[in-house]
Specification:
By secondary structure, this protein is of the alpha/beta class. The strands form 2 sheets. Strands 3-2-1-4-5-6-7 form a 7-stranded mixed sheet, sandwiched between helices. This is Phosphoribosylglycinamide formyltransferase.
Length: 202
């Protein structure tokens, strides 16, 4: 399945998807990486892996303008599924509707808890003992949408937000390739706004 990864920063999740997709039986191909920032560190990683890239400066475009450019790139590359991987721009209802059930995101918390930003600090502030990450289909409401897969990590005494972020990120790098494989192979699908799994690829 021709898949694009949308990034804004370091792109470590994108790199994890690229590495997984190099495996012979993997059901998705990362065929395009798009960045909302021309200086995103992830662009060099994608180029080193031989993946076509496109970069736009979100500051130079309004939201419809940026999304039009992104959409053109996706169409030109024949992309069928889009993975948000640290893409830090809100997407318009138009774009989200256009990619309905073909647009997935990774969020660094166990949704529906801790939507939004600064999840690791907020987890520490609340004294929560289990944290993690979620891959979900994107819906209009931010950090909502049918959950495809989740991974949990412990919160340990002495953790700082940075230490916790690193532990969660390691879990993200395992979870996202797993979740993408479920979606791309047809083993995960949306039924009544929940994801159900089946053994049969469809
Ligand atoms: C990840 O923690 C992701 O969940 C969050 O932003 C971070 C992106 O990291 N939305 P990277 O760009 O994939 O390294």
């Amino acid at each position: 399945l021709k898949t694009a990864a949308l990034i804004s920063g370091g792109g470590s999740n994108m790199a994890a998807l690229v590495a997984a997709a190099k495996q012979p039986d993997y059901p998705a191909e990362i065929a395009l990486v798009i960045s909302s920032r021309p200086d995103a560190g992830g662009l060099a990683k994608a180029e080193a892996a031989g993946i076509p890239t496109a970069a736009f400066d979100h500051k130079a475009h309004d939201r419809p303008g940026l999304e039009r450019l992104v959409d053109e790139e996706l169409a030109e590359a024949g992309i069928e599924l889009v993975c948000l991987a640290g893409w830090m721009r809100l997407l318009s209802p138009y774009f989200i509707e256009r990619w309905h059930n073909r647009l997935i995101n990774i969020h660094p918390a166990l949704l529906p808890s801790f939507k939004g930003l600064h999840t690791h600090q907020r987890v520490l502030d609340e004294g929560v003992k289990i944290h993690g990450c979620t891959v979900h289909y994107v819906r209009q409401e931010m950090d909502a949408g049918p959950i495809i897969a989740q991974a949990a990590v412990p919160v340990l005494d002495g953790d700082t937000a940075d230490i916790l972020a690193t532990r969660v990120l390691m879990a993200e790098h395992m979870l996202y390739p797993h979740a993408l494989a479920l979606v791309a192979s047809g083993r995960a699908r949306v039924e009544g706004e929940h994801v159900v799994y089946s053994g049969q690829p469809s």
